[in-house]
């Protein structure tokens, strides 16, 4: 029987002349990607019985769109003969200075699109985005012109390992019933994935909806994980880590979660040259050359990334059309051992970001899963809580403060004030021209909170105010969720957090425990908007615009569709 695709193809990192295609096959083999006269091939490697390959196709023209096919052992496996969608394209990045469209979003749970699922989670915005792009490409007979995205940034919670949909829960129950008895010794919790093969099935179910699968095959994507890719509130605090490490199943869970993330998400963020510099990838390739499964090597690296969080750098940098895009891990590398000295990035991660918060680029884009600039009430509440956890009002309240931190998910950038102030101060310096020629914008792209908003910021009096402002626009662009709508009570609480009175109360609370003023001041200019959404950021010379598209349900077809919101101009139009 011929070897086929289990998952993919997924178009991952592209440059002006190269494009990377990731696949999972159902058996070992040779994978070849063909796009016109260009082609690339790779042997699969194996991790815990699953087989993968990455092919980087070179020699492509900038801003090109070439239909491609995938073969395994000489047999064509993509595109499927019965696909209703236009051909999948290898799309390269435009040359410096050309317009760039970055679509972004986060938090997608893979529902079955039934009426009950739509009522609870809302229509799937990523599927709606795929259907719209497919229709526009079909009408254009090729790329969709000004509707064509340059890249798709998936910034957190690509999979929900701790909140399973019915199909995945049923698979898990059956798989564990048949599993070797030694697995039961780990006492895995019901309704949560723990083992690598369970993660592999979770990724398969999440990314094989036919419309979403086509979208991922034809739009370059960059990815970051957040907590649900592993577990809710992952690395909230040192106390949280110690409690989880005491669970009999947690070590296997964190090893499987980090290992599968490296395979399914992280490797595709890199070029072939960058993968060649990864020591773990070299070990995996050696195992493949020897005909061995590399599961042990991946597990060892994942365990080290957990026990030594600062040993692995998950953040990555990209040059896109004359702008700098920084995909920043704010989850895995946290330093939370000491509540009085916390870092959301860890030492190496903080140094990596600080080095790249520079001018000399058209636009500076910082994608970080957790919003950097929250509604002010929540921002101050998190600062107040962090101070209490560190003992600002004495040791007796620390336990209460920790319980509150976990119950209310108080673990965003604002709950790591040393890290927040360092990045905010660097952004002020960027805008003031103290770190090179100021960019037109410094934009923070985030998700996580399950509502969307736009917040513009400026230097505060603590940072010198208007004197430090410069001409760089600093703004927070939050788009969340793709498919996981907030229930009504939580929507009302989120709306309340954006009002002035709670913000003023939060300011008093923060000052009462000695939280200093921030180098930035901001407010919500637009939003909050609730519902499933995809945002699109247009960068054209010195101009930047953003709009959100919200998922709705077509009453006639039952399929999801997108309704575009207004365009929000972040900078004046560039002179023509």
UniProtKB/TrEMBL annotation:
Organism (species): Nocardiopsis composta
Taxonomy of the source species: Bacteria, Bacillati, Actinomycetota, Actinomycetes, Streptosporangiales
Domain PhoD-like phosphatase metallophosphatase: 146-483
Region (Disordered): 555-576
Pfam families in the record: DUF7800, PhoD
Annotated ranges, domain DUF7800: 3-88
Record's protein name: PhoD-like phosphatase metallophosphatase domain-containing protein
Gene3D superfamilies (alphabetical): PhoD-like phosphatase (3.60.21.70)
